[in-house]
Amino acid sequence: MLEQRYRWKNKQIREHVSVLDGKLAPTILLKDACYLNQVFRKWVTANIWIYEDRIVYVGDKLPDNMSSCEVVDCAGQYLVPGYIEPHAHPFHLYNPHSLARYASQFGTTTLINDNMMLLLQLEKKKAFSLLRELRNIPTSMYWWCRFDAQTEILDEVDIFSHADVKSWLEHDAVLQGGELTGWPKLLDGDDMMLHWIQETKRMRKKIEGHFPGASEKTLAKMTLFGADCDHEAINGEEIYHRLMQGYMVSLRHSSIRPDLPVLLDEIQTLGIEHYDQFMFNTDGSSASFYEAGIIDNMIRMAIEKGIPVVDAYNMATINVARYYNLEYLHGNIATGRVANINFLENEKNPTPVSVLAKGKWVKRDGNIIDQYNDINWQEHGLDALNIDWDLSPDDLQFSMPFGIQMENSVITKPYSISIDSNYDQISDSHDECFFMLIDREGKWRINTVVKGFAKSLPGLASSYSFTGDIVLIGKDKNEMLRAFNRLKEIGGGIVVSEAQEIVMEIALPLKGVMSDKTVEELIEDEKKLSSYLVERGYKFNDPIYSLLFFTSTHLPYIRVTQQGVYDVMNKMVLFPTIVR
Question: What region holds the Adenine deaminase C-terminal domain (predicted)?
Answer without folding.
Answer: 410-570
